[in-house]
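User: My instructor asked us to take a sequence, write out its structure as C-alpha cells, and then describe one feature of it. I'm not sure where to start. Here is the sequence I was given:
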Amino acid sequence: MDMIAHARQTTAKPRLFWRRAFAYLIDMAIFEVLLSVVAIVIPLNFGMPLFQSTQCEEANLGPLVEKTEREWPLNPGERRVNQICYVKPFLGKESAFFRTTVITGNPDGGTFSSRGVSTAVNQNGDAINPVSDSVGTLFGLILASLAFAYFSANGRRTLGKKILSIQVVTVEGASPQWSKASKRELLKFSPLIAFAGINLVNAVTASDESFDAYLRAMRDGSAATTTPILIAVALLIAMLLWWALPLIRWRGQMLYDRFCGCEVCRSSGRHSLYSGRNRCTDM
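Assistant: Let's start with the prediction itself. The C-alpha cells for your sequence are:
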C-alpha cells in the first residue's frame, strides 16, 4: 500500500506543476490587461511583455545615425546596422529606442562577432535617459507581487488558481497570512525585481553623455563595456537557478515555496475563512 501511495504522489507532482504554470499564465494575462488600463491614466511603461510588441526598421537618417557614423567609424571587414525600434503596449504610451550594431565577419562564411549600443529616444530621435521606464518596470513587478499576495492570503485565490482548482497553503495545511504570502510572492519575482532595480540605479546615475560614453567604449573595446555584460550574465544565471533548478527533480515546491514554508495543492473547493485552514485533496 505504501508503494502504491508513493507512486500516486510521484505521478501527481508533474500534473500539478502544469496546473501551476497555466494558472500563472492566466493570472499574469489578467494582471497585465489591468496594468494596461492603469497606464492610460498614469503614463508609465510597466514593461509587461505579454501584450506589447516591438517592431524595428532600418534607420538611415537622424541625429544618432550621424553621431554613430562620426564617432564610431568602421574598420575593414565591418558592417553596421542602424535600427529604430518601437515598443507598442496593448494600451498606454508607445516608446522607441535606437540601436546600432557593428558586425565583424568573414565574407566567406566564417565566424563573426557583433557589438552594439542602444538607447531610448524621443520623438525627434535624440537620446534620452529612460528613468520613467525603469521606475515603471520596478513598480509593476512590486505591484504584481503584492496583488498576487493579497489573492493568496487568508483563504483567497486568484482566478487562475480557481479555474485550475489549486491553492497556496502552508506546509501545515493552513491558509497563509498576509506576511507569509507577500514574502512568497516577493521572493518569486525577486530575480526580476533585482534586474529592474539595477536598471533603475543605472538610469538615475547615468549622465546625458552616457550614450556617447558607451559608443566610445564599444568602439575602443574598453573595460567599461564588460561590467554591464557580467552583471546581466550573473542575473541570468541566478534566474535560471531560481526558477529552473527545482524542475530538474520536481518535488512539488519551488525554492521560494521552501523558504516560506508553503506549497501548492489541489483544492476541494471547500474551505473556511474563519478557521484559516483549507482542504486540499491528493491527486
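For the description part of your assignment, you could build on this observation: The two ends are 16 Å apart (CA to CA). Try explaining in your own words what that tells you about the chain.
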